[in-house]
Amino acid sequence: MTAMDRDLELELVGRLTRQDGDAFDKIYETFHPRLFNFLARLSRQRDVAEDLVEETWLRVVTHAPRLHPDTRLAPWLFTIARNLYVSYCRSRALDYDLLAGPPMWSTPPAGPSPFEAAAAGELQQRVEAELATLPGPYREALLLVALEGLTPAEAAIVCGVAPDTMRQRLKRARGLLAKRLDAPAAGSLSVLREALP
């Protein structure tokens, strides 16, 4: 997780609205891996995540001139990525709320990807497997708050729900994950951050 200084963020937003290529490059460098991992964990399909993250960046370029000067980049970018994923599910008649399934790759890729390298440990593998079985809204709540460091209020904005709804999703998601891992401590956000860097 990469935290961005608020003054730098405001400067980058201003430069991005003026279509400054260097500002875009900095934002891309900071957020691309995070957006890809978020989409990969939601979709559990590398090719889908690659397509959706590419489309996310195209939308950023298209809509950047209309940004408000005080825009928070992480919630804005994750909202774009999540909305594209939900649209992807709808276009394929997939039930996003119930969507859970097999691991991201049915056969291992040729070499270890950064994603696989991060999930090398036993706890990481267990958490990753159980996280993939959670219903979509719970999975995305944990990904946004536990892994991406968004506040529950920011995650609520990304998902288009009330803050109370997001807090409820987080509580249920942590409870389900802890129960499935058979470890009460696994329900804490810090364990998720450590298990899924």
Tell me what the structure shows.
- Helix content is about 70%, strand content about 0%.
- The chain contains ten helices and no strands.
- The longest helix has 23 residues, at about 20-45.
- The protein is mainly α.
- The chain has helices at about 5-15, 20-45, 45-65, 75-90, 115-120, 120-135, 135-145, 150-160, 165-180, 190-195.
Outline the secondary-structure elements.
Layout: H1 6-17, H2 21-43, H3 46-63, H4 73-91, H5 114-118, H6 122-133, H7 136-147, H8 152-159, H9 163-181, H10 189-195
Short descriptors:
mainly alpha; globular; 197 residues
* End-to-end separation: 8 Å
**Overall helicity:** 55-70%
- As a percent range, the share of strand residues is under 5%
Main sheet record? none
Report the C-alpha radius of gyration, rounded.
17 Å
Structural shape = globular
Please identify the structural class as seen in this structure: mainly alpha
Report low-confidence residues grouped into runs of 5 or more.
98-109
Mean pLDDT: 82
